[in-house]
Amino acid sequence: MAITRAAKKAIRSQARKRVFNVRTKRSLAETVKAAHAVGGDRKSQQEALMRAYQAIDKAAKRGVIKKNTAARKKSRLSARLKKASGK
C-alpha cells in the first residue's frame, strides 16, 4: 500500500497509462492477426501489411514495445506473407 502522496499519485498515473498501453497492445495484436489471416490477392495482402506496419510503428513510438521488437515483428510478418503468396 502506498504511503506517501507521491506514491499514491504514481499509482494513479500508472493506472491511466496502463489503459493506453493495453489499448495499443490489443490494437497491435488484432491488426497483426488480421494480416496473418489475410488471403487472396496481392493488393489485400499489401493493405493488411501496411495497417500492421502502422500499428507496430505506433506501438514502438509510444514505448509499448521496443524498437528492435517492432523491427523483428515487421520482418517476420513480411516474410510470412511473402512465403504465403508463393514467392
Structural class: mainly alpha
Poorly predicted sequence stretches spanning 5 or more consecutive residues: none
Q: What order do the SSEs take from the amino end to the carboxyl end, as H and E? A: HHH
**CATH architecture descriptor:** Up-down Bundle
Overall, the morphology is elongated
CATH superfamily: Ribosomal protein S20
What Rg is obtained from the alpha carbons, in whole angstroms? 17 Å
List its salient traits.
87 residues; mainly alpha; Methane Monooxygenase Hydroxylase, Chain G, domain 1; 83% helix; 0% strand; elongated
Describe this structure in words.
- By secondary structure, the chain is mainly α.
- The protein has one domain: Ribosomal protein S20 (Methane Monooxygenase Hydroxylase, Chain G, domain 1).
- Helices cover 83% and strands 0% of the residues.
- It is built from three helices and no strands.
- The chain has helices at residues 5-37, 42-61, 67-85.
- Helix 1 packs antiparallel against helix 2 (42-61) and helix 2 packs antiparallel against helix 3 (67-85).
- The longest helix is centred in the N-terminal third of the chain and has 33 residues, at 5-37.
- The termini are far apart.
- 11% of the residues are buried.
